[in-house]
Amino acid sequence: MVQPAGASLIVEAAQPADFPRIAELTVGVYVDGGLASHQYAPELADVPGRASRAELLVVRDGEGPVVGSVALVLSGDFGNVTTSDEEAAFRMLVVEPAVQGRGIGELLVTECLRRARAAGKRRMVISTDPRMTAARRLYERLGFTRLPERDWSPEPGIDLLTYARDL
Predict the structure, then answer these.
(1) Which pLDDT value is given to residue 79?
(2) CA distances for 48 relative to 45, 51, 146, 147, 152, angstroms
(3) All structural domains of the chain with their residue ranges
(4) At the top level of CATH, which class does the domain 9-124 belong to?
(5) Could you read off the pLDDT of 51-71 as tens digits, one per residue?
(6) Is residue 13 within 8 Å of 55, Cβ to Cβ?
(7) What does the pLDDT look like over 140-164, one tens digit per residue?
(8) From CA 107, how far away is CA 4, in angstroms rounded?
């Protein structure tokens, strides 16, 4: 568990009891926020499937409910953007809209970077939708740079931008 000094935000591994809240939050942010289609909602809601392929991290505000989540991919194909065993990825980073701007996204990203580094990874590679301007600003501020040669489309009409940061 990681708790920033002087803050009530706590980052920890997700527990199965957190899965319904993670699903609700992820579908809400992506689908209700207009960033993903309703056809993608079942995959966004499949938190047990995500947990079988990635390390799920959550942020709580003190002892309260989950207000953020991310899937950290240290091995396997769930990252969709990694090309070697030296790369890690994270996916489906979400923060409760009511608490955005409190550093929750940054806390999740920095924890992913820390864990990937501890696992011996040399690079973090991520993809994001061009419409996710706040996320892209965060990634760039944290040292991620564009890898346009690795941009990809999971389906027609969905074009994702790829970013990377050496660890």
Answers:
(1) 66
(2) 9, 5, 31, 30, 25
(3) 9-124
(4) alpha beta
(5) 999 999 999 988 889 999 999
(6) yes
(7) 999 999 999 998 877 777 789 999 9
(8) 8
